[in-house]
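TL;DR need structure tokens for one chain.
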Amino acid sequence: MIRTHTLGYPRIGLQRELKSALEKHWKGELDAAALQETGRTLRARHWEEQRAAGLDFVTVGDFAFYDHVANHIQWLGCEPARFAFTGQETELERYFTLARGVAREVAAESCDHGCTHGDHTHHAGKPALEMTKWFDTNYHYLVPEFTADTQFSLRTDSLLTQVAEAQALGHNVKVVLVGPLSFLWLGKAKPEGATLGNANFDRFTLLPQLLEVYGQLLAQLKAANVAWVQIDEPILGLDLPLAWRQAFEQSYAQLATCGVNLLLATYFSPLEDNINLACRLPVAGLHIDLIRAPQDLAGVLDWLPAHKVLSLGVIDGRNIWRNDLAATLELVNIIHSRRPGHTLWLAPSCSLLHVPLSLRTEARLDPELKSWLAFAAEKLDELNVLKRALNDGEASVSVELAQSAAAIANRRRSQRVHNPAVAARLAALPDDADRRTSAFSVRSARQQTRFGLPAFPTTTIGSFPQTSEIRAARAAWKRGELDAGAYTAAMGKAIAEAVKCQEALGIDVLVHGEAERNDMVEYFGEQLAGYTFSQNGWVQSYGSRCVKPPIIYGDVSRPQAMTVEWTSYAQKLTKRPMKGMLTGPITMLQWSFVRDDQPRATTALQIALAIRDEIVDLEQASIGIIQIDEPAIREGLPLRKNEWKRYLAWATRAFRITASGVQDDTQIHTHMCYSEFNDILPEIAAMDADVITIETSRSDMELLSGFGDFKYPNDIGPGVYDIHSPRVPSTEEMVSLLRKAAEVVPAKQLWVNPDCGLKTRGWAETEAALRNMVEAAFILRAENLVQAA
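>> reply
TL;DR here they are.
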């Protein structure tokens, strides 16, 4: 009999209840007990949805108030010593301190990150854990920090409480954990706190004591009557060092003695050379991703022992297109014929964390387009149809199969998908469409003549605080409760205030603040042909931050200018340079749900040409500095290095095509954040942006060292403060970071800016941080580092 399960489920709720509760808690408007109750309510609701869809297990352990990796940091007792917790804090207080940092020394009763009781005092200057992308997704996880002094200890009360909750509701529980090797791999070795002589220790040496704690955790779960534990080891889809590969067999031989059934889960990337290893590990079952790695199937069928469960990821856990159920049934039947009498489970390819929760609230979505889609709840329904068809015969679900077939056929033949004019433009694109007229050295001189910027020029990444007034005006306008004139006036007022503030602070290159923009991708997608939008298709990016990715269903083009009017208005308010702010083609691609009926490279090129048209229009409107944000270019990198060259070739070409339609004295910026760049620096340099701004403050300028070693040829703006934390860093702290930057990158190439946009911050902390940032730039100028070099 076929069984079904899911590797994980969205956490935020149908109406983003978790987001609302978190933000109220952080503001002190909701106490910890009420926040915990919100979590219990959401978990119970989501488990019931899984049971109602016929799943044989509900998944426990995937819920998190901020991040599931942060959960593991607490469960495994390895909160970094630098936070100096006293033991008086609650688990939740410590958790949010790890995630958000501490702004200053405050008493607990007035703590601005949500503490609600206790008489402890937080200490100043506690930056949050570093945050980076979860493999090649747009989800951010909090990076574990390891030193030679790191100790692990079991602290799993919150997990065991969730297990008990599910069991009390009558559910058959399967717990999900990040596997020990993936947890260790995803962390970073930190010299701070290391014993003398161990500053360069290898975090791999922590594996033996980590395995002991994992063994204790599995024993606890067995004692709690948990029969199955899904243990995620997605790093098996990476190019691992030999020592890490060899550690899998010994590690799982040790864990296998705990007496609980382990389902080893891999996803996102092909196993390739790790197929044999994954199949022979002493676990009860193996999950494989047949959406992203269908090529693994043949090897797994050959190598996986007959007594082990084979879990097939046949439903796309990362995209929103309806499954071709007929094709999936055909595939599963073929697999079943290869494994007669053996146990098969069906599941999404990965956790459904990466897709919206349900189409139930999508009343305004175009009916035809809606019929092509499946969000998380609908994907569970698809699993149910597959299970019933395989167990009870296809006649038992003939109506559902007919509906699926009709939707698949309709999408394939729809005239809304293909635009002959777009195809013709791509076909006629000249070979040199991705090249600027002159080299950077020539462009840089002409740009300096035009703008006359000082050493260490200051700027921001684009967005300014989205106040409640801005959001209310935009929402009222979209609902039809505010007319166009009143909306334009409201946005114009917000833009004028942002410009006035920047001038008062002394920032050199200004931005208009993006008051009119809901999201850096959604704003543009709403104005491009080939895109559509859900009403409530929210996906968690990190913590309370949710995004509503656009849906690219057809050929992309730009019907009319998108940003020129607002940017030109802002430029008229100041004599200083005003940056035009755009989102680049790879980020528009990566942060959307992308059509799966043509190569992603083709879709990226279509977007590139649409954004190029906008850049040309901005230049003609006398906007001389234009930023093309590409924070997602690194996350689009395939997880297997043998596929990097192909991806980077089309991705960087798409960026250059976007940027290469302008004159030499127009300065092109790009921004990238929360990614490791050192292994693709030649390709980033080949993008040939005049200025690149990057996130570096959480890593204490660590990410910048690679740019220095590479001798990156163009200008760089290393972020000098973390905008995802409420803390306001001092001028001295920023000066220290800039001096570190000047040690590895020539001072004449350095810009000064925050890590990322300021949309989520409040005005008071924004002004305070930017004032310190400008002062730091003045101090560096006074030190004459440029002339000294």
